[in-house]
Write a structure and sequence with these properties.
- By secondary structure, the chain is α/β, with parallel strands linked by helices.
- The chain has one domain: 3-Layer(bba) Sandwich (Glucose Oxidase, domain 1).
- Strands 1, 2, 3, 4, 6, 8, 11 and 12 form an eight-stranded mixed sheet that branches. Strands 5-7 form a two-stranded parallel sheet. The chain has a two-stranded antiparallel sheet with strand order 9-10.
- A hairpin with a 2-residue loop joins β9 and β10.
- α2 crosses α6 and α3 packs parallel to α4.
- The chain is elongated.
- The N and C termini lie far apart (53 Å).
Length: 232
């Protein structure tokens, strides 16, 4: 299935997430605002340090070791999109390389996020095109004409739909569902402001335990445990 057009979040919402990049570690704040979910697995690694970006997902579901869907996804991207590839965790076949990177730059693609491997990493690092993936391997897939573009996928343990907002920084990658993006943006903005005030108090000598009243947290937990034991 090839879907060449997708619904995208409003431009002001995407821009709002980009503005959050003025803060450090925004993926942590965004994940917190989504109930501590929607972060990709810790084995997803950037090809080089300093990758910090926001974009709209154009999704790819590969079949076996076939690059065709990934090629097509680049062609349907709009500037600022991020190609997100579900390669079923395959780390022994590359689903991205130098020529794909050059093609992606021609389309204004912001990055590639791959639940699998890539190759031509020396060239990609020189170009400084952001790629986040699970591995590096010389072997590349075939071009056989299988796979889907812009369908719901999973990537590194997270559901991704076309039009979702992808955010990456030094902590990893989070995915914000398009339908929830406006609400999550507001929550993240408030959380980052609150965190700023908390850190000012810690800088002044307080501890995080004092600020969250950690003794009360333990008392509440012990109370629940006691009640559960009595019920048993």
């Amino acid at each position: 299935m090839i879907n060449e057009t997708i619904e995208r979040p409003p431009a002001e919402i995407v821009e709002g997430f980009k503005n959050l990049l003025a803060h450090d570690s925004i993926t942590c704040a965004i994940s917190d605002c989504m109930g501590r979910f929607n972060a990709m697995t810790s084995d997803m690694r950037p090809l080089f340090d300093g990758i910090r970006l926001v974009g709209t997902a154009v999704t790819v579901k590969t079949l076996a070791a076939d690059l065709a869907a990934a090629f097509k996804a680049i062609d349907v991207c709009q500037p600022g999109d991020i190609v997100v590839i579900d390669s079923h965790g395959s780390v022994n076949t590359a689903f991205w390389g130098e020529n794909m990177t050059m093609s992606a730059l021609n389309r204004g693609v912001a990055a590639a996020v791959i639940d699998g491997a890539c190759r031509d990493v020396e060239e990609i690092r020189k170009i400084r095109f952001p790629v986040i993936c699970k591995g590096i391997v010389p072997n590349v897939g075939a071009i056989a004409g299988y796979g889907d573009v812009n369908v719901p996928i999973q990537c590194a343990g997270v559901p991704v739909s076309p039009g979702d907002i992808v955010v990456a920084d030094g902590n990893g990658v989070v995915v914000v569902p398009m339908a929830e993006a406006a609400v999550i943006l507001q929550k993240a903005q408030r959380l980052l402001e609150t965190e700023h005030f908390l850190q000012k108090k810690i800088t002044a000598g307080a501890t995080i335990g004092e600020l969250v009243n950690i003794d009360e947290v333990f008392r509440t937990a012990f109370s629940y445990q006691d009640k559960a034991l009595k019920r048993d």
